[in-house]
Amino acid sequence: MAAEAAATSALTEPPPPPSLPPSLPPSLPPPSSASVVPPTLPIHNLPLSDAHTHWHEAAGTPSIPRGVVRLVTCGCQPADWDGVAAWVATAAAAGPPDGGEIPGRVYYGFGIHPWWAGAYDPATDAGATALAAAIARLRELLTAHPGASVGEIGLDKCARGLAAAPLAVQTAVFDAMLAVAADARRAVSVHCVRAHEETVSALVAALARRPGAGGGGGRLAGILMHSWAGPPSATARLTAAAAAARVQLAFSFQGAIVRAVAAACDGAECGAAAGGASRQTLSVLAQLPPGAVVFETDAPYQPFGDPRADSAWAALRSGTLAALAAAGASSGGGSSSSGAAAAAAIEVPDATSPPAQTPARVLEVLLAAAAWRAMKARSGGGGGGSRLPDATAVASEASLLAAAAVQSLDAIFGPPPPSP
């Protein structure tokens, strides 16, 4: 009880910001009990999806990891694009790993990441020539790959980003990528670091463009905000613009939330100062509806550690996996009786020497998000409340979020909508 009380006090926050819009058109209906537990999934029947990776860069991994039914991999510069296409073709031919039954689906994109934008400065002759050539090649690839998106693209005001390219150059390249995506009616996967207002402004402008007006032939098919850490104001502004344009939008959360939620469960300070996601990020995560929340690993990059075996978070996680396993067994989809067995069954390595970060670890991000949302629901969305949620509540939230994330990724990256 003392640990629970300490954890509750750690969750106390200032009054939350104004609530975000409740849903996004086209709306994603809450999954029914039947769709939450697809019969083909193993053990605890949790359909995992990794909304943002560079998995094509991980040597010896030609397929989707077991347990992951959706995976998005993105190229970051023209030199990377052919490798993306080649890996996707290989993964499609390989099928599910180890003879598994999961019908995984890979989504993929080609883009110019802000860290590589410096070579494409349109204010210089060389940069303008390089950008024109990259745009022409991107258009060719999108024609050859009707299922491809445009990404990873965006803006980055951290020290590394600004050293690679001034914000004005990043913005010019980002705008050019958005225009290509809109003309081809493709989705975008957007990088945004310390440039939330600028990134949202560029996206709002792209969403406001009408097909056939001002030289454009289409509109964005969907938007995925990679590793989102923006404030509620920017989140709400982009949500409203996407809703008005009837463009599917989702905000993706990554491994930084695991450390923050683990700290909160253990009664420690949670937030960026503790090495995890900020309170602002966690506040947004708690407010968004399930259809607007997806999860990612950024694999093979951005590894994150596991909680201590004796921590309150580890106990809640284990109990949640046990609850999911029990639900799977009762529905005929699995037979595991312990949380540890459930975790081991879904986290089968993909290669002899797997990278430190694998898409299968998106399970950890999902569980942390479900636990945080269950905590906030128990405390009424504010800083109150008397105890951590029980594992059954977290398992229920995880099932809902997992199924909704698959639906959301399909809505964003699936076939483009018909012309208006």
Structure, explained:
This protein has 420 residues and is of the alpha/beta class. It has 14 helices and 8 strands. Helix 7 (196-208) links the parallel strand 5 (187-193) and strand 6. The protein is globular. Residues 1-43, 98-102, 333-354 and 382-386 have low confidence and may be disordered.
Major sheet: arrangement of strands: 1-2-3-4-5-6-7-8
- Strand tally is 8
Order of SSEs: HHEEHEHEHHEHEHEHHEHHHH
- Structural class determined from secondary elements: alpha/beta
Radius of gyration, rounded? 21 Å
Largest sheet: 8 strands, parallel
Q: What portion of residues is helical?
A: 40-55%
Distance between the termini: 58 Å
Mean pLDDT, all residues: 79
Binned strand content:
5-15%
